[in-house]
Design brief:
Layout lengths: L2 H18 L4 H16 L4 H11 L6 H14 L2 H13 L5 H17 L2 H18 L4 H12 L1 H4 L4 H9 L5 H30 L9 H26 L5 H19 L5 H34 L2 H12 L3 H18 L2 H18 L4 H15 L7 H10 L3 H24 L1 H10 L2
Helix pairs in contact: 1-2, 2-14, 3-14, 4-10, 4-13, 4-14, 5-6, 5-12, 6-7, 6-8, 6-11, 7-8, 7-19, 8-19, 8-20, 10-17, 11-18, 11-20, 11-21, 12-13, 14-17, 15-17, 16-17, 16-18, 16-20, 17-18, 18-20, 20-21
Length: about 425
Amino acid sequence: MSTQTMAILVLLVSFAVMIFLRFPIAYAVALSSLLCLLYQGLPFTTICQQMVKGINSFSLMAVPFFITMGCLMGSGGISEKLIALANACVGWMTGGMAMVNIVASYFFGGISGSAAADTASLGSILIPMMVDQGYDDDFSTAVTITSSCEGLLVPPSHNMVIYAMSAGGVSVGSLFLAGYIPGALLAISLMIGSYIISKRRNYPKGDKFSFKNLIKQLGISFWALAAVIIVVVGVVGGWFTATESAAVAVIYSLLVSVYIYKGLDWKGVWKVLENCIDTLSIVLILISTSSIFGYCLTTLHVPVLASEAIVGLTDNPVLIALMLNLILLILGCIMDMAPIILIATPILLPIATSIGINPIQFGIMVILNCGIGLLTPPVGSVLFIVSAVGKVKMEKVVKATMPFYVCMIAVLLLLTFFPQITMFLPNLFG
């Protein structure tokens, strides 16, 4: 067996063993990379160099800014206003509160960019509200976690920035534009699933539609939705880089939360920033350690070997595309989102482009696959959050989520085989 093959086995087998033993993902990535470098006889200075290189990026600065923006807006009284706006839009339908939950997640996702933040913030309000109105608790939690994935697709999403960095120069503005229609398609599919279940279980309708109330709620929610407009229009229009737009959005979110909605005082702002630091430290540690892992994969030519192995099984583009989705879904069951993007993108993107998948389209596929992974045991972090928020056993939540998995997989297949859905807005705006 060659030295290269042994080094690859040391890297991947040690990583798999540590994941199985439930090591924190950052430790598993770092230690497996360390063992691989030691086997190859490379100096320890390589580790420090690659870690610094991984986070020494101007574009990467957008990630902490977007996370901070989401924390400020999420804690600043935005959730209730977006729920009221969603209720004015779709609350009149059969299963109205489920529809409100889904549409509110679309609005809130554009602000937080995080499925976990969406679930914790909206779920703590909407799940008890749905149960009080006669909805089953497991159905309420299932709707909440599946709709939270909309926030990963609707810009601004810090995961899109991470993907753009991992993919080596993909336009963040194009990714932002590409996420809107898939996010809306996911929302529509979940609404169809919710409507069918609501009809069967005779869940109630909400109040009648009122155009006057809709205009009123739009006026109240305008300041929250304007944060998204600032980021997306600024980046797409070329007025800001993604990093600059994120910094502007943080200042704007701070002013809106403190002075317009008055959901935070300055003491509360400091508490929110403390919580942000906890999240940011986890994300940046993952990025830095994944940089070492990526360095090992690249020097050992793992992306090339993986590409040859998959193409060696079949040259059918449809089967290769399905295999890519399957690999990402399996990874999503055992790993968190950021590490998957950082580790899998350099390996799988060349395979995707070889069968004609645009890097922007593949980015949306990766993010949706990872989003589904957040809802699947054994590692699905959002699953644990909603179980705690809704006070429902995880096994019961997973069972109730099964019909919505079907809706999400259907959307994933549409995005895979109909690139026009993803690429329409990026192509329209150049």
